[in-house]
Amino acid sequence: MLNNKLDRTFAALANPARRAMVERLVAGPATVSELARPLPMSVPAVMLHLKVLEEAGMVESEKVGRVRTCRLDSAMLSQAEIWVAEQRAMGESNLDRLVKYLDETDGGQ
Amino acid sequence: MLNNKLDRTFAALANPARRAMVERLVAGPATVSELARPLPMSVPAVMLHLKVLEEAGMVESEKVGRVRTCRLDSAMLSQAEIWVAEQRAMGESNLDRLVKYLDETDGGQ
DNA sequence: TTTATTGTTAAGCATGTACTTAAGTATAAA
DNA sequence: TTTATACTTAAGTACATGCTTAACAATAAA
User: Fold this and answer.
1) Domain span at residue B19?
2) Chain A 51..80 CB hits on strand D (< 7 A)
3) Is the ipTM of this complex over 0.90?
4) Nearest to residue A2, comparing CAs of B8, B15, B46, B6?
5) B65 CA vs D30 C1’ separation (Å)
6) What is the CATH number of the domain that holds B39?
7) Is residue B33 part of a domain?
8) 109 residues of chain B, pLDDT tens digit each
9) Which of A14, A16, A30, B9 is the most exposed place for a label (fewest CB within 10 A)?
10) Per-residue DSSP letter, A61
11) For residue A109, is it within any domain?
């Protein structure tokens, strides 16, 4: 499982701790401890979440001295957004056509 | 885990079989066998994926006779789209500000 | 009324996820 | 040079996910 890039991206977003980390990182880079501080879990647990985000290509990090600084890469976020937007748009336009058809043919009355 | 609605939505989308089912359903309703036919797995496995999509509120289904017909509900897809779009937009505007700042201050040169 | 179709349930198995605590390493501050 | 900080690794636990096959139920077609 999780071969596909979209698999990894959506799986990464399917967790509230990881979404919180993304929500923090959209405001700018942060260290591991800054990411961990608001989260109700240990630092090693945050490291695992960070690894998931990095493997999904959504976050990059670099260690300088003893501090690892993480920053968002929004490219995969864009890919996910495009996929969802396309499906939603097609689903809704299909529904619109159905509603219009029912209106025109007095369907269901 | 998976308390949050977004958790379930993103988790549902994190699987290629389930995304394929959604991609089929945006074109209109389909039966369980129609959803299963193109997928490289057994019908019981497809039923499990269908259950995940239903529990995420993305698909509704109704059984008439021996046939269960499934249709997409795009509301949760919209919720997911909004979250992703917001984060991506904020991430990019933040990056834009950084680039602009570096340009103006001759940063990094 | 036999038979085929459509779906459902149950049991089992392998792997992945989401943490924990404990014990390290490397760096920087006192 | 001792000590605190920031992260990392390892080991272990509990539960969830993604399938499988086999057996079954309900309905429709022959």
Assistant:
1) 5-104
2) 63, 66-69
3) yes
4) B15
5) 19
6) 1.10.10.10
7) yes
8) 566 899 999 999 999 999 999 999 999 999 999 999 999 999 999 999 999 999 999 999 999 999 999 999 999 999 999 999 999 999 998 878 878 887 887 655 5
9) A16
10) E
11) no
